[in-house]
Specification:
Length: 212
């Protein structure tokens, strides 16, 4: 959820879902589980932002991409530590709970979580902030409280585990990951810069990050 490149890809896909006439569905999956299952946390590997030169590059890259994609991401060097120190597991379970109960709210709720984390620098792991996110996304206080209570339930935990395992089955090894089902065949795309290629595969034209 808190992956910055996933924010870019999701926003642009939302802009294209009617232009390309695609059935866009968000599927909550836990990045930590994907990385552990694909050995990216093993063998002494470090997160990219913790490698000095890579972190320096990513800082500039994210700033450029935010401008190019017209997505309100504000990031500084200190944010890399903030990212590593914030768990998104509770938020992912919150999203999983809404997907199980009121899936029509999944897209706006996801967007609001991203906005809170990347534009307003809020700690989305805190229950009060989850409730604020839900309110901003249009959920009633009663439904938001119900979701908050559900995040510790075995049903929600198992559902998130299942969707994470499904992503791994399709070949996901990190985020952002998009699976396009076209002509009866799944196509995995990794990275926020593969949308033009995605359009080519499904026979649609790429009109830039902000199509008119």
């Amino acid at each position: 959820l808190i992956h910055q490149y996933l924010f870019f890809m999701s926003q642009v896909l939302c802009r294209y879902q009617h232009i390309w006439n695609i059935d866009l569905r968000f599927r909550p999956a836990f990045l930590g589980g994907i990385m552990q299952a694909t050995d990216l946390f093993l063998k002494g590997n470090k997160p990219p932002a913790m490698l000095p030169k890579r972190g320096e590059y990513m800082l500039k890259d994210i700033q450029r991409m935010a401008k190019y994609y017209q997505v309100p991401v504000q990031i500084s060097e200190n944010d890399f530590q903030r990212i590593l120190g914030t768990s998104s597991l509770g938020a992912m379970r919150f999203l999983t709970a809404i997907d199980m109960t009121q899936p029509q709210y999944l897209e706006p709720l996801s967007r609001e979580f991203w906005m809170r984390f990347w534009s307003q620098h809020e700690d989305i792991s805190q229950p009060e902030n989850m409730l604020a996110v839900a309110k901003q996304a249009g959920l009633s206080s009663e439904l938001a409280q119900k979701l908050l209570e559900m995040i510790s339930s075995p049903a929600v935990k198992n559902r998130l585990k299942e969707t994470t395992e499904e992503a791994i089955k399709y070949g996901a090894f990190g985020m952002p990951a998009v699976v396009a089902h076209f002509n009866g065949e799944p196509h995995l795309f990794f990275g926020s810069d593969r949308l033009e290629l995605l359009g080519s595969i499904i026979g649609e034209k790429w009109l830039g990050p902000v199509p008119s």
